[in-house]
């Protein structure tokens, strides 16, 4: 959302930083996947941003995109969100045996490595005040590109999660 997230920062004594922003209800929505190659030699980040909430057709399109770009079997780890359970998504999964879905327990973001991609992104965007959804989207894209290009940052997301890495 365009409401700035705040992060503790340094300032000269007696000069409290003030972040000015205009309250707007604009927002962007994101879907993302962190990928691990079969031999664990390469990590990848796939994502899509849009200016509306995601629906089951968007999830199905994202899965189609992943299958297009990834070879071999694909294991999808995801939460219990309603958009993951829709008929369109379930039909797509049934028709594509390369996709194997493993579900996280409800309310377990600490298990999801993609949540740590968001943690890094939000931390890096903290104390910024974009003027509109388009500027916010550009900022998020820039941060995602930096994370995408860093094997070290992607690995840190996996290691930060409570998933077993064995």
Q: How would you describe what is shown here?
A:
- The protein contains 6 helices and 4 strands; from the N terminus they run ββαβααβααα.
- It has 166 residues and is of the alpha+beta class.
- The mean pLDDT is 84.
- The radius of gyration is 18 Å and the shape is globular.
- It has a two-stranded antiparallel sheet with strand order 1-2.
- Helix content is 39%, strand content 16%.
- It has helices at residues 56-69, 82-85, 87-94, 113-125, 133-148, 151-160; strands spanning 29-36, 43-50, 74-78, 99-103.
- The chain has one domain: 2-Layer Sandwich (Nucleotidyltransferase, domain 5).
Summarize, please.
Helix content is 39%, strand content 16%.
The gyration radius over C-alpha positions equals 18 Å
Rough outline: globular
Number of strands: 4
Number of helices: 6
Strand content: 15-25%
CATH architecture: 2-Layer Sandwich
| Strand-pairing-aware structural class | alpha+beta
Fraction of residues in helices?
25-40%
Could you state the oligomeric state of the chains shown? single chain
Separation, N- and C-terminal Cα atoms: 37 Å
- CATH homology group: Ribonuclease H-like superfamily/Ribonuclease H
Order of helices and strands: EEHEHHEHHH
Sheet with most strands: 2 strands, antiparallel
Count of discrete domains = 1
Unreliable stretches covering 5 or more consecutive residues = none
Q: Return the CATH topology.
A: Nucleotidyltransferase, domain 5
């Amino acid at each position: 959302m365009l409401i700035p997230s705040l992060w503790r920062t340094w300032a000269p004594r007696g000069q409290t930083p003030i972040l000015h922003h205009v309250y707007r209800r604009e927002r962007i929505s994101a879907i993302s996947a962190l990928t691990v190659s079969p031999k664990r030699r390469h990590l990848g980040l796939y994502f899509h941003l849009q200016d509306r909430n995601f629906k089951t057709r968007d999830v199905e399109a994202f899965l189609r995109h992943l299958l297009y770009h990834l070879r071999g079997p694909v294991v999808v780890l995801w939460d219990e969100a309603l958009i993951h359970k829709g008929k369109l998504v379930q039909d797509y999964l049934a028709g594509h045996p390369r996709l194997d879905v493993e579900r996280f327990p409800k309310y377990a973001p600490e298990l999801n490595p993609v949540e740590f991609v968001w943690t890094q992104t939000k931390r890096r965007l903290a104390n910024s005040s974009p003027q509109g959804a388009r500027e916010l989207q550009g900022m998020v894209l820039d941060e995602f590109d930096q994370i995408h290009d860093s094997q070290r940052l992607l690995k840190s997301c996996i290691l930060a999660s409570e998933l077993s890495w064995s």
